[in-house]
Amino acid sequence: MKVVALSGGVGGARLVEGLSRALDGDLTVVVNTGDDCVHWGLAIAPDLDTVMYTLAGLGDDARGWGLGGDTFSALAAMRALGEASWFSLGDRDLATHLTRTAALARGEPLDALTARLCRALGVRARVLPMSNEPAPTLVDTVAHGLLPFQEWLVLHRAPEVRRIVLPDGPRALPAALDALEAADVVVIGPSNPYVSVEPITRLPGVRDALSRRIVVALSPIVGGAAVKGPLAEMIPALSGAPPSAQAVLERYGGLLSGFVVERGDEVRGAPSLATDTIMRTRDDRLRLAREVLEFARGLA
Amino acid sequence: MKVVALSGGVGGARLVEGLSRALDGDLTVVVNTGDDCVHWGLAIAPDLDTVMYTLAGLGDDARGWGLGGDTFSALAAMRALGEASWFSLGDRDLATHLTRTAALARGEPLDALTARLCRALGVRARVLPMSNEPAPTLVDTVAHGLLPFQEWLVLHRAPEVRRIVLPDGPRALPAALDALEAADVVVIGPSNPYVSVEPITRLPGVRDALSRRIVVALSPIVGGAAVKGPLAEMIPALSGAPPSAQAVLERYGGLLSGFVVERGDEVRGAPSLATDTIMRTRDDRLRLAREVLEFARGLA
């Protein structure tokens, strides 16, 4: 069974890691790059790095970003020099950003560089950026107007959102479109639909490719709360509805063949699987991944 | 007494630190930037950093470069990613290079950026790069042909030199020329004349300004050996003479009003001061700086 996963950061990365083990590495992951940014002059790709580090078993499980056991000496020194210190980059993590920045500067495409980093870190799954072109997600806020994604999320701590502004220009990575066209099943991780999944699905050709596939998503909302991040506040602000798995399903608007929700969260309008969706341990990831794949098989 | 010092790395930086204390911070230092390089995409200025860190009391005294007590986690991670690891950049040290790289990229001149870094680190002396323009020193070697300076020194460990190639284009920093014109005394640190001092003195206008000043240099050769670095091998290769304080004095070719040498090293052709020139402790630096200034006063 050919499986492609779409992923944002933490939750998506954890599911992807489970999927990769369930499929013995035979998995393609298309990762959101809408929250990529340039910080300290470095090209940062937070979701790509979280997926890559999580797949390599090197991620920091507690924080959900960066490398486990990393140190922050450069950050402390930047603060002492009066430079911006609101975005935490670890010392070992810096190697990834330095490598990416130098590679892009000399013209290496983001997907080739990502493949090279994954090889060096021992990642077996195929990790693709959604695009080789910059595709910055902007967040229009009540208090500060239009903000680049990381400034909204990290610097300003996710203030109230008026709308999400996704760019029109960028093209999907051709290899990502090819993988979607060839997929038996597409799994959308328990990621934020507005800022992690839609930056991928609205790229030209992606929604069309998905419409011909079995697509299963996981709900990032459990019992009316977001497992992580600001989604629970975004749903009422952007849709007028209270935060719920149902609201997420409706946001996907007919894209899904099936929806996986937490036990007790009921949804109408699509075949659903209710199970334990919170991934606390590595065993949880594998068990959930297997259930999701089994559910998808049943939908085919 | 207005004092300007010309400096390369380690030895020059130590004398400069003594001079700064002897003059209560009232010192201008013009620093070689001929060995600046771009590594990992970062703008590195080894001599500027060594002077700055040494003046701030933050340098690593044993190594002579970098920050004392720094860690090397990013370097280890770069090595794991298969990136170049022959040039050791510490984690806290990286903050300086990241700040410099971002500043230059947005058009801040090197001297303004250097002043800003010095302020942040509490450096009282005025530290000027010799030029705001790239002025790369190349080393023509018997074994590898023409090499950028750091590749010659660090990557290839200073193989035999055929000649030093200094660029023709770069202009001296106007503020450095002004400081030299206004100086009562110019002190040239115990730096390598070929690759630390001449990159400064051959910039248009510098030698002319020096010809009207009291100029005192310290010998980097003690008892026929270099205190640090590859100078003892360079002198025979480039001049045909054995390494000696006399050979250094002759290399300066009439530029000097006086020459400070180690006790026991005799020189002919300029007024000289023989004293203890090896700076092992911070007290040594201050004592030597005071002796050099006293000697220069006597030459006026």
SSE blueprint and pairings:
Two copies of one chain form a homodimer.
Chain A: E1 3-7, H1 10-22, E2 28-31, E3 37-39, E4 42-44, H2 46-55, H3 73-80, H4 91-105, H5 110-121, E5 126-129, E6 138-141, E7 145-148, H6 149-155, E8 161-165, H7 174-182, E9 185-188, H8 193-201, H9 206-211, E10 214-218, E11 221-222, E12 225-226, H10 231-239, H11 245-252, E13 258-262, E14 272-275, H12 282-299
What does this structure look like?
2 copies of one chain form a homodimer. With 300 residues, the first copy, chain A, is an alpha/beta fold. Chain A contains 12 helices and 14 strands. In chain A, the strands form 4 sheets. In chain A, strands 5-2-1-9-10-13-14 form a 7-stranded parallel beta sheet, with helices on both faces. A 3-stranded antiparallel beta sheet of chain A has the order 7-6-8. A two-stranded antiparallel sheet of chain A has the order 3-4. In chain A, helix 1 packs parallel to helix 2. Chain A is globular. Chains A and B meet through helix 3, helix 4 and helix 5 of A and helix 3, helix 4 and helix 5 of B.
